[in-house]
Structures are given as structure tokens and as C-alpha cells.
Design brief:
The structure holds two protein chains of two kinds.
Chain A: H1 7-28, E1 32-34, H2 42-46, E2 50-52, H3 54-63, H4 67-77, H5 85-95, E3 109-113, H6 119-131, E4 135-138, H7 149-170, H8 176-198, H9 209-215, H10 217-221, H11 226-244, E5 255-260, H12 268-277, E6 280-284, H13 286-289, H14 300-307, H15 317-330, E7 335-341, H16 345-348, H17 351-362, E8 366-371, H18 381-395
Parallel strand pairs in A: 1-2, 1-3, 3-4, 5-6, 5-7, 7-8
Chain B: H1 3-15, H2 19-26, E1 31-35, H3 41-46, E2 50-54, H4 74-85, E3 93-97, H5 101-113, E4 118-122, H6 131-152, H7 158-184, H8 191-201, H9 206-229, E5 238-244, H10 251-258, E6 261-266, H11 272-275, H12 285-294, H13 309-319, E7 324-330, H14 334-349, E8 354-359, H15 366-381
Parallel strand pairs in B: 1-2, 1-3, 3-4, 5-6, 5-7, 7-8
The chains are: A alpha/beta, B alpha/beta.
Chain lengths: 396, 386
């Protein structure tokens, strides 16, 4: 990560406004709705409710290196250190009086989609009990191979159930025309986000995975709003300017690698530096691409029912190998790094075999390392460093 | 035949769980395994194949560790170990129910590492209260039925499926009756023995299991009426409910009994959850199987807002007149680990003593567990133990 982005200030401003708006909504009695990162938030924006992402809270607590402290509170309460780090942050914050990164915004409603994992529903169930707020699970069957009509119908039917649930609990009417507008805005933002991610394919590139991690908060929390569209339009312009001025993501880009999936938040800087020190740009990850969706605003509810549950994390083994290899080809990668993340079984299980198979299929060197996205108690710097350095040597 | 003779038949089936499957295979029948536990075995049976539960193993895990992280539960790790080391090569197929993140990932790993020719998902809905769940589940059962027909080359007619459901219902009814006698007369059949009979049902031929079980129950009833003639037989055991996934390693049951306890209820995958409710025999049969699944007791893998686990466990303890509850939680089982806090609070506020033991299929230190069990049972049993 080279010189600071102008949009960084804008982002800070945007996020401060977003969090303030949340507090305001609580005061004004506008329902605060907890949602998961891969959830049709468009429905919430279309109803003028306030969506809040407890996963973001987890990521922020992790990046500020307090996940272990919050986790210890959750552990004293009877949760366990081998559960998802984000969940431990959220549950820890519920039970603590010391809010190390500000207090999580209590929900009036909790909506969860399990396409990401089975941890989020369990966390949201527990939070629903703690905050005494109604909970709704949008249940996505696993897509090992093809997406069946049966599953698709089930998903769509549940969105109607969800809308009814929201109408009953918030006493507001749902407006399908408004949804269409919101989906159009969402589509525009995700398109712009994708354009930014695409710039990593240039060599040398003005934008890489670690930049994307920095700039992703609005696409996660605000897609469906005009603010998100404006933000990524400006980011795109800035990236084009930087390209003209030859400001690149890292100074001497020699290699490009694919990174699977999320960063080690409390060691983000360390991780970014170690790649930069080896003149290696991390160019893509299925994680940051998760929000590069291509919605069809003409079929607003259907497009949501299709695209969210079909995310990589809910797909089968072969699909995900192909997805990784496609990224490696598209971004001309020279190698790949797979993160076996204790907090995330859906992303991590199967990586040992995938590492071998991808190398066999592409000839590219790859490595799997073990850590936790949140909790430094499960991070051994020496071990990860040695593994990565061996990998850099193999890449040449 | 005396009770002990019958019990030793069930114990032998549990000691060599795949013997019957091997016999079937040798006779040319297809054998389809299933991972624990929410699978419609009746469909496999009605397709003319032999359904057999893959129940994990207490042997050391070695080969699976290069394919599956060690921070995964030992039920899945040891089951995969058997798949890789060839112990399960007799399987023509395996049915993997999607109940948690590990099972969701297992199917792909199983395809890459094991020789099983036919690998199938059973994609259960994770919410059980809304109308969409039932409609979807009926569709999923229809899909599974078609796949099983293709795989076995047999048509699952209504007649065959009804006969299978009847056979499995009978098995459940007999198991319930056996368990009732165990609860009222643990001196006739101990906890370990009763649960061994249930576990044997998961790998034995159902018709044979039913026959043996019917005869065993007759003997047990005989014994009970004999005991009744000797007026007051003292029942000085501490009645306990156990909650969790599995009673592994099996020595746990002995430890509970040696400490003066008796298990009078549970929600285990290798216990009450395997039994579940009967399926209706007189309605649409796939709908009946769907309803059986949706009416099962609460479990951490499914969102069941109509009947929360904390309430279910308290009901379970009260109904079975237990004095306490012991959680047997497999290390790294996420659904249990997320629910534990709430379940414990529910029990505590109802004044029900409870103890959580973390278990693993392999390398569990039983000495420590014995000490904790003895202290817990003595605490809640008080004078009973003397």
C-alpha cells in the first residue's frame, strides 16, 4: 500500500455518518436490523430500515487487536475459543462493560442468511435471545454442483416469508417499486466495485487485495444506496488518476498472487508488508469479489434470491477449485496462498487437498497457512513467515 | 434365551458394526452408508439397498489429518479416517446429511479421498417452523428417491416404501418399549446395555433387530414381573438425562453407572434423535417422512423457534424425573458450543444441576472424567448414593 488514497478521507466520513445514523435510528425508533454480509440488504434499504453488520464489528475489533479480549469475556460466559472470532467479538461485547471499540448496535430485528456458514445463524440466535429481538433465518441449501429449481423456489418463497415477517414486525408496507430502485443502485455499486478490483490485473497495478480490504466497507454495508455508488465512482476515478501518475499498489511489482480468502485482521499490515517486501502483489480473493455481483434490477426479488445464496462459500469442492483457478488465470498469477482460518470452516475445510490439486492443474506454487482471522492467540508469526518465505522462494 | 444372551448379540453387532453390511454385500445386495443422523433410511431400504450407519471410530486418527483440519470434531475425522483407510470400501454409496459446516465440506473431501462410488447429499432445511421448510423438504425427499432409484435400478413403489416405513416404525416402537423398561428397571437392563441396543439398530438388519428385540423385551417383562413379587426393590440410582451428539467413547456409560447414575433420557444422535417420531403409514409417504424429520426433537443444527432447546431440555428432565443433566459435547462441535450457554442458563434457572463434559472419540482421558462424574453424581444424589 503506497501513498494514501484521497478517497480514504471520504470513506472515513461515510462510515462515521453511517454509524451516527444507526444511533439516530435507535433514538428515532427506526428499527435497527442486524444482517449478515452476504444478505439481500436491498430489502432493508427498500423499507427504510437501518441495516447493521455485526460482522463488521468483528472485523473492526479484530483489526484493532482486541478480539482476544472480547473473546475472553464470551469464553467466561460459556462460549468457546474454537467458535468463529467475529461471533466471539459480538457475544463478548454483549456481556462486557468495557466496550473496547465502541458498543455493538443492539438490534430490533435479526436477519441471517446461512449461505456463508452455520456460525452466523448460531451467533444471531444467541444474540436474538440476549437482545430479546425477533430472528429470521433465510435458509440456503448447499449447492454442491448445479443450482436446482427446487432450491431456487425455496429461496424465493422464503423471501416472501421474510417480507411478510418484516411487514408484521415493523408495521411498514413493502414497496416493490422501491426495491427495484434500490437493486438498481446496488447493481451500479457492485459493478463499480468490480471495475476497481479489475485494475489489479494491470501490471504493475494501482490496486490490490489489501487495498480492496481497506475500501470494502461501503460495498458491504451500503450497497443499495446512492452513497455507495458515489464512493466507488470516485474511487475508480482516483485509481485511473493514480495509474496516469504511475502510483502503484506496491513499489516494484514482480509477482502477482491469489489469496484465499480473508486477511488476518490483527496482522493486516504485517501480512501486506511481507508480500510487498517480496515484490509480490496480492491481486484477488474470492472474499473481496463476493460483492462484485451482477444484479438484474428488472427482476429485483428473483435476482436477490439467485445471487446471494450462490456465493462461492456455498458451492461445492470442484466449483471452488475452478473459481480459484479462474481468478489465477484472469489476474495472471504466479502463485497462490490459501488461509486455513480456524474461525471459518466453510472456507477452510478442503484446502489441504485443493492446494495439491491446484498445483497439479496449473503448475503454480501454492501454500496453506494456519491462523485465525481475529484472534492472535491462534497466530504463530514464525511459522506463517517461514511458510510464506518458502513459498516466495519457490515462486522465484 | 436369557436376557444376557440377547444383549450379547447386540453387543457383538456394535463391536463389529459392519459385519452385517459385509454379509449383504457378499450376497449381492447394494450397501449404502449414512453419516449421523438425520437421514431417511427408509428410502434406502425401500430401494432394496442395505442402509448402514457410519458411526465414527475410537481408533487413532492418522490419514484423515492431512485432509481435514484437526480442529474438526472427531466424529467426522474418524469417519473420514475409515473412508480413507479402506475400512469402508464395501460401501456402494454414502448419504451425507447437511447439518453443519463440517458435513457441508465433508462431501467434497470424501469424493476426493475415498473410493465410495456413489456419494449423495441430503440437503435438509435448517429452519423447521415455516411452511416453506416442509414444501422444500418434500421436494428434496422426492429428488433423493429418484437418485436412489437410479443408483439401485429399483423402483421405490408406494407398497415397498410403506413396508419399509412400517418396519422402521416397529423398530422405533420396540426401542421405546425397551427403553421404558430400562428407565423403570435399570437393574434389568443397564444404561450401557440399553444404548448398545439402540446403536445396534443403526447397523443391523432391521427385521433381525426387531425379532431379537421383541424376544428381549419378552424376557425383560418376565424378569420385571418376577421382581414385582419381591415387593420393594430399592431403586437407589441417580436419574440423569444426557445431552449432546454421541456417547463416545462407550466407557462413558460405564463411568456414569459406576458413579451411581442411570441414564433416563437423552437427545443424542446415537440415542433419542435416531429414534425420533414414527412416520405416518396411511398418508402420502414422502410427506410422512418429511413430517417425521420436522417433528424431531430440537437440535443445534436447526432453527426451531417453536421449541427452543433450553425449554426442551428442562421438559426432558422433568418428564423423565431426572435429578440432573450431563452434556456430552464433542470437542469442536459448533452447534453445541453455540447453544451451551443458553441451555445451561435454562437448566440453571429451572434449578436443574448440570455438568458439561468435553468428549472425543479418541485419546480421551477417562480418569479425569470419572472424578468429575463421581463428584457431580454424589452432589446431586446425596443420600441416595450411600
Amino acid at each position: 500500500m503506497s501513498e494514501p488514497f484521497k478517497t480514504a478521507a471520504l470513506m472515513k466520513d461515510l462510515m462515521v455518518k453511517y454509524y451516527n445514523r444507526g444511533e439516530e435510528c435507535r433514538r428515532e425508533g427506526i428499527p435497527v436490523v442486524w444482517v449478515t454480509a452476504v444478505f439481500p440488504v436491498e430489502i432493508i434499504y427498500a423499507m427504510d430500515l437501518f441495516p447493521y453488520y455485526p460482522e463488521n464489528f468483528g472485523a473492526v475489533a479484530s483489526a484493532r487487536k482486541v478480539a482476544d479480549k472480547l473473546s475472553e469475556v464470551a469464553e467466561r460466559q460459556g462460549y468457546f475459543s474454537d467458535l468463529c472470532g467475529y461471533a466471539r467479538c459480538g457475544l463478548g461485547d454483549a456481556y462486557t462493560t468495557e466496550h473496547l471499540v465502541g458498543k455493538i448496535l443492539p438490534p430490533d430485528l435479526l436477519l441471517c442468511c446461512n449461505t456463508q456458514c452455520g456460525s452466523l445463524p448460531k451467533w444471531f440466535e444467541a444474540a436474538g435471545r440476549f437482545y430479546k429481538a425477533p430472528y429470521f433465518l433465510w435458509d440456503s441449501p448447499f449447492f454442491e454442483d448445479k443450482v436446482s429449481e427446487l432450491s431456487q423456489n425455496y429461496l424465493l418463497k422464503q423471501l416472501y416469508e421474510l417480507i411478510e415477517f418484516l411487514e408484521v414486525t415493523t408495521k411498514r408496507r413493502f414497496d416493490f417499486d422501491r426495491l427495484q430502485e434500490v437493486v438498481a443502485l446496488s447493481s451500479e455499486a457492485t459493478g463499480l466495485w468490480n471495475d476497481c478490483l479489475e485494475m489489479a490485473a494491470l501490471k504493475p497495478a494501482p490496486f490490490g487485495f489489501f487495498d480492496a480490504c481497506f475500501h470494502m466497507a461501503p460495498i458491504v454495508t451500503m450497497r443499495g444506496t446512492k452513497e455507495a455508488v458515489d464512493y466507488y465512482r470516485q474511487l475508480k476515478v482516483e485509481l485511473e488518476e493514480r495509474l496516469k501518475k504511475k502510483i502503484y499498489s506496491i513499489p516494484n511489482e514482480r509477482h502477482k498472487v491469489y489469496f484465499d480468502h480473508i486477511p488476518i485482521w490483527p496482522r493486516l499490515r504485517w501480512l501486506a508488508d511481507i508480500f510487498a517486501a517480496h515484490d509480490t502483489l496480492v491481486v484477488a480473493s474470492q472474499y473481496t469479489h463476493a460483492w462484485a455481483m451482477n444484479f438484474d434490477p428488472a427482476r429485483p426479488l428473483e435476482t436477490l434470491a439467485e445471487l446471494y445464496p450462490q456465493q462461492f462459500v456455498n458451492r461445492g469442492f470442484d466449483y471452488r477449485i475452478k473459481l480459484k483457478i479462474d481468478f489465477m488465470k484472469h489476474y495472471s498469477c504466479d502463485g497462490f496462498v490459501l488461509f486455513s482460518n480456524r474461525s471459518c470452516k466453510p472456507s477452510s475445510l478442503g484446502l489441504y487437498d485443493k492446494r495439491k490439486m491446484i498445483t497439479e492443474m496449473t503448475g503454480l506454487p501454492g501454500v496453506v497457512f494456519e491462523a485465525d482471522m481475529s484472534d492472535v492467540r491462534f497466530f504463530s508469526e514464525g511459522q506463517v513467515k517461514t511458510l510464506l518465505e518458502t513459498f516466495f522462494e519457490r515462486m522465484g | 434365551m436369557a436376557i444376557e444372551k440377547y444383549l450379547s448379540r447386540f453387543a457383538a453387532a456394535v463391536a463389529s458394526p459392519y459385519e452385517e453390511a459385509h454379509r449383504r454385500k457378499a450376497n449381492g445386495q447394494k450397501v449404502i452408508g449414512w453419516l449421523l443422523t438425520d437421514v431417511p433410511e427408509e428410502l434406502i431400504h425401500a430401494a432394496g439397498a442395505f442402509p448402514v450407519g457410519i458411526l465414527g471410530s475410537n481408533k487413532n486418527i492418522r490419514l484423515a489429518d492431512t485432509h481435514l483440519q484437526v480442529w474438526v470434531c472427531s466424529l467426522m475425522r474418524s469417519s473420514l479416517e475409515m473412508g480413507i483407510n479402506g475400512e469402508l470400501d464395501f460401501l456402494d454409496g454414502i448419504l451425507i446429511p447437511q447439518t453443519c459446516d463440517t458435513t457441508r465440506a465433508m462431501v467434497g473431501i470424501w469424493r476426493k479421498t475415498c473410493k465410495t462410488p456413489y456419494i449423495e447429499n441430503f440437503m435438509l432445511p435448517k429452519q423447521v417452523n415455516r411452511p416453506s421448510a416442509r414444501e422444500y423438504l418434500i421436494g428434496e425427499l422426492t429428488r433423493l428417491k429418484t437418485k436412489l432409484e437410479q443408483e439401485t435400478g429399483e423402483i421405490i413403489t408406494d407398497e415397498r416404501l410403506r413396508a419399509s416405513i412400517r418396519l422402521f416404525n416397529e423398530n422405533r416402537q420396540l426401542l421405546r418399549r425397551m427403553f421404558e423398561i430400562h428407565v423403570s428397571h435399570p437393574e434389568v437392563i443397564s444404561s450401557r446395555e440399553a444404548y448398545t441396543v439402540i446403536k445396534a439398530a443403526m447397523t443391523m438388519d432391521k427385521a433381525e433387530h426387531n425379532k431379537l428385540l421383541r424376544d428381549l423385551i419378552k424376557e425383560m417383562e418376565q424378569k420385571v414381573s418376577e421382581l414385582a413379587q419381591h415387593a420393594d426393590h430399592p431403586n437407589s440410582k441417580v436419574r440423569l438425562v444426557i445431552s449432546g451428539e454421541v456417547w463416545e467413547p462407550p466407557e462413558l456409560m460405564d463411568l456414569i453407572e459406576e458413579a451411581g447414575g442411570v441414564v433416563v433420557g437423552d437427545d443424542l444422535l446415537t440415542g433419542a434423535r435416531y429414534l425420533g417420531p414414527d412416520a405416518a403409514e396411511d398418508s402420502d409417504l414422502l410427506e410422512a417422512l418429511a413430517d417425521r424429520q420436522l417433528k424431531k426433537i430440537p437440535f443445534g443444527g436447526f432453527d426451531n423457534q417453536d421449541y427452543e432447546r433450553r425449554r426442551f431440555l428442562v421438559d426432558q428432565v422433568r418428564q423423565s424425573e431426572a435429578m440432573g443433566l450431563i452434556f456430552l459435547h464433542l470437542k469442536f462441535c459448533e452447534p453445541e458450543n453455540y447453544d451451551y450457554n443458553d441451555m445451561r442458563e435454562g437448566l440453571n434457572s429451572a434449578g436443574i444441576p448440570n455438568l458439561r463434559l468435553e468428549t472425543e472419540f479418541t485419546n480421551l482421558s477417562l480418569g479425569q472424567i470419572r472424578t468429575r462424574l463421581e463428584a457431580f453424581i454424589e452432589m446431586i444424589g446425596g443420600d441416595l448414593i450411600e
